[in-house]
Here is the input.
Amino acid sequence: MTTPGHDQARVERRRREHERQAVVFGVLIAFLAVCGIFALAVYSGAISSPFNRPFNTVGVAEQETFPVPCLPAVEGQPDGALPIAYSSVQVRVLNASGEGVDGIGQTGLGGAYGNTLTERGFEVIDVTNAEQNVTYSELRFGKGGIVAAYTIAAHFPDVRLVLDDRKDNDRTVDLLIGAEYEAPLDIADVGISADTPLTNAEGCVPAAEIDPQPRISIRKSTGDEPATPAR
Here is the structure.
């Protein structure tokens, strides 16, 4: 048989447990309510999310991005610019990988690219090293070489198109082989034909609205990269 004192102690103990439970659940409910209000405010645009930051792919920030010029209108080609005959495209291959012998360029890399382009009919006028290294391969050209650059770009799975400040009547194109280089596509996978207009790059900008970048200089030869004589 329990005494009244024991009953009273049990009642007090249960009361304190209920109070603690009420406090805990009250705090949890209040926290969830605040989270809900915050989420609603972010969703409605009333405030900016602290997590609303772009994701960065490793290596992407290592090389500045530039606007890609749109294809120009070509006289006699009302449906759009057609690819240029490969034999009429002059390209200079520059090893800008920053790897290999003497830290200048990977031995034979430029020569391999030059040979591939030559075999496909392009006029490779030089193979050498770039003064500046790049992470991702680029095609650099002036306003007169936009169509030629698009024609060469079709032979690569991913290559950046950069307008530089060479003279407008200069139609040559520089291929800079970056550290993250990719081999040219198989010729059967090149998706252009002589009678089909080229397609503008997504998000391209008219060349007149782009500030051209400085032309990449050639690094003085140190013998690590065999040069292809100009034709």
Q: What stands out?
A: The first helix runs from residue 4 to 44. Residues 70 and 201 are 7 Å apart (CA to CA). The chain has three helices and five strands.
